[in-house]
Amino acid sequence: MFTNMVPNLGKVMSRYGFLFVQGLGYTLLLSLLTVLGGTVFGSLLALMRRSRHALVRALATAYVEVVRGTPLLLQLYFFYFMLPELLPMLNLSKFVSITIALIFNSSAYVCEIVRAGIEAVDFGQTEAARTLGLSAGQAMTRIVLPQAVRNILPALCNEFVAVIKETSLASTFFVGDLMTQYNVIRGNLFLVIEPLLVVGVIYFALTFSLSKLIAMLERRLKAGD
Length: 225
Prior knowledge:
Number of helices: 8
Number of strands: 0
CATH topology: MetI-like fold
Radius of gyration: 21 Å
Helix content: over 70%
Order of helices and strands: HHHHHHHH
CATH class: Mainly Alpha
Structural class: mainly alpha
């Protein structure tokens, strides 16, 4: 088995190297869209959880608890089958349905990241801003959020790394990501280990590189304090 591994790896890369590159592109696109969408909706959820209105807080809290309390794969299945039924006129592709499901999931986690970042800012600064005549919204956007970003940014980058790994579940629906390409190559060559090794190396190289960049970002932010 091991004696044939190197020749088989060469066969995999020579014949299907372009599929790994294509899968990497889909994985990065899926992850980027998820984090961007999750950041927008997660930030809105975080503000809702800090709302003065009990009903708004309850809705946001229920959303976060439901998402965090159910498996991601279940949510992917739910959106994959539900969205085309609810919105048949839009003719949503598999990729779009899965992207929306991932955003739905990521928003709950980003919400907690943003909320923690906001709460880390000294409340006295909000009181001082209100004393100077700023409204609650102005105090949040001009005083609190700019400072909270320093606390939020590294955690959001870590969320991006986590999402890259979570997108592997999207291969269940064959949306073109790395694990989808692995399944295609495995079916064509009847090889299991070799293409899996290539995919594993790509995932590790990607997440390891991003983790190092995040560590550098955290050191710069700390140095700037």
